[in-house]
Amino acid sequence: MMLSAFACTHRVTYSECTVGNHVYYSRYLDILEEARGEFFRHLGKPLLALQAADFAFPVLECRLKYHAPARYDDVLQVQVWLTFAKGVRLNFAYRVAGADGKQVLEGETFHCCTNLSEKPKRLPEDLIQLLKPHLQPQPERLN
Amino acid sequence: MMLSAFACTHRVTYSECTVGNHVYYSRYLDILEEARGEFFRHLGKPLLALQAADFAFPVLECRLKYHAPARYDDVLQVQVWLTFAKGVRLNFAYRVAGADGKQVLEGETFHCCTNLSEKPKRLPEDLIQLLKPHLQPQPERLN
Amino acid sequence: MMLSAFACTHRVTYSECTVGNHVYYSRYLDILEEARGEFFRHLGKPLLALQAADFAFPVLECRLKYHAPARYDDVLQVQVWLTFAKGVRLNFAYRVAGADGKQVLEGETFHCCTNLSEKPKRLPEDLIQLLKPHLQPQPERLN
Amino acid sequence: MMLSAFACTHRVTYSECTVGNHVYYSRYLDILEEARGEFFRHLGKPLLALQAADFAFPVLECRLKYHAPARYDDVLQVQVWLTFAKGVRLNFAYRVAGADGKQVLEGETFHCCTNLSEKPKRLPEDLIQLLKPHLQPQPERLN
Predict the structure, then answer these.
(1) What is the 3-state secondary structure (H, E, C) of B14-32?
(2) Cβ of D25 and C59 within 8 Å?
(3) Which residue among A80, B40, C37, D112 has its CA within the 20 to 30 Å range from the CA of A36?
(4) What does each C-alpha distance from B69 to B24, B66, C40, C73, D127 come to in angstroms?
(5) Which helix (H) or strand (E) holds D42?
(6) Chains that touch B (3 or more CB pairs under 8 A)
(7) Are the CB atoms for A14 and C31 separated by under 8 Å?
């Protein structure tokens, strides 16, 4: 049971919707990236600063479960937390809900920590310390 | 071991790339949609005709494994096949490779068959017959 | 000389950037759409409510001047105002600047007012009244 | 009157469409980029080779006129030609039509020739020679 997680909001635009008036299935990954960016800023380590220090976090894998369509102008609540952060690996989990609390999407993204030349590199110790309070190992996998 | 699968190609544009000169992680879902569209056309049942007959295939779940970055101007080979097609469910698997055969991405998307009002609806029998030769049940899950 | 205009902010994500680390040239139109949406909400007439009342504003023409590249994580200031609003036509102008005030983009978009079946339809009188304070006829065209 | 122009095709996907079932207004710029890429390849000078030789062509300005909506699965014909190519400047014009010949969009994009550090740089003489047959100075501006 999750007690707290970093959360931010996102308002759906026409550019994110497709035929049938719902958010196109790939756009959620854009929204999750936006939320990860806000999460790192909230930690006091914006990705831009990490990039300047020669760290990048390319995605190795992602899994999304679409529970209900989001529509134009919906204000989405995006929760972000960590399920793993050790060595060269960093896994995030997400929950996206509508303003009414209706579950829209669950997701996981698995990342590698690398330098800007795409070589794996251990997560810096100070980042691991900042990430710890947000770590909630997944009791059961999404599937 | 897969003997044959429907395949099409996609050339990477700048609009699909991000900082660091690689395809942005969500754009692969756009490329897989393009490939599914070509696959249905190849079957003789374009999605537009299915839509006109009140069928849609919203995505319930997707899983992507990123093996190597694709770059601007790469010509990607996208293979598409089915792992399940029965009742109201339709599952696709994909393999994306560079022109040199290097594996770029493996993916799965799980769909529901619905009407245009988003109500589940059985796959039409003639479509199931057309899909059969492309069905390769997954021996092991991606993960 | 413009004394005041509706303004909102937008933080640049990786999904909007391309090779060379700058915002891809088409993404500014997505950002301008987001700003128009916020502008209509600010007026008390969100586009969703106008859509429910059978109004749409398809774009007839757009012009963008790119002054300087915006980069990942930049916080853009987007100013929106009107240059024309009469009959079935609605023209917007925009100025996008970096957090430091550096000019990034100037734009104009020309819209038609239509019903949801894409037939032209006069702007509703109450909307025209709300738009008036934001009307600044262009003394000189962008070009 | 234009006698000939480089042309390529583009099939519209769901990822390019928005609410109301038409191509979202910014996606045409993605399609024009794809067409410019094909045009340079056709000349024997792919943009990737020019990039390797330290040339980039950032956009300074663009103008689009939307004549009719393109829909999902439409096969668009995209014509590309040059209206200016001299010194550090390169201007393109475009015409996009449906498979039935119906005009969808007219566009212009104005580019600067730069090095990869975004400093202006003269167009290479061999490129100017290759571009010449595609040069059709605009008798009248789009507006």
Answers:
(1) HHHEECCCEECCCHHHHHH
(2) yes
(3) C37
(4) 9, 7, 40, 22, 30
(5) helix D27-43
(6) A, C, D
(7) no
Distance from CA of A2 to the nearest CA of B (A): 22
Instruction: Considering only the beta carbons, identify the residue of A13, A37, A46 that sits closest to C33.
Output: A13
Q: How long is chain B?
A: 143
Instruction: Identify which of A61, A69, A116 has the shortest CB distance to residue B66.
Output: A61
* pLDDT surpassing 90 at residue C3: no
CA angle in degrees (0–180, nearest 5) for C65-C69-C74: 120
Pick the residue from chain A with its C-alpha nearest to B67: A60
Determine the pLDDT at residue D112. Answer: 98
Torsion sign (Cα): B23, B28, B31, B35: positive
Residues in B touching A118 (Cβ below 8 Å): 20, 69
CA C73 to chain A, closest CA, distance in angstroms equals 7
The type of residue at A70 is A
D139: confidence class by pLDDT, cuts 50, 70, 90: low
Q: Is the ipTM of this complex over 0.90?
A: yes
Which residue in chain C is spatially nearest to D29 when comparing CA positions?
C26
D56-101 confidence digits (pLDDT tens)? 999 999 999 999 999 999 999 999 999 999 999 999 999 999 989 9
Model pLDDT, residue B138: 72
- pLDDT score of A142 more than 80: no
Q: Which residue does chain D place closest to A19, by CA atoms?
A: D21
> Does B139 have pLDDT greater than 80?
no
B-chain CB neighbours of D29 within 8 Å are 15
CB spacing of B33 vs D13 below 8 angstroms: yes
Question: HSE on the CB side for D22, CA within 13 Å?
Answer: 17
Minimal-distance CA residue of chain B relative to C16: B18
Residue C1 has pLDDT above 50, yes or no: no
Instruction: List the domains of chain B with CATH numbers.
Output: 6-134 (3.10.129.10)
- Condensed to tens digits (0 to 9), the pLDDT of residues D82-93 reads 999 999 999 999
For residue range B6-46, list pLDDT tens digits in order. 999 999 999 999 998 999 999 999 999 999 999 999 999 99
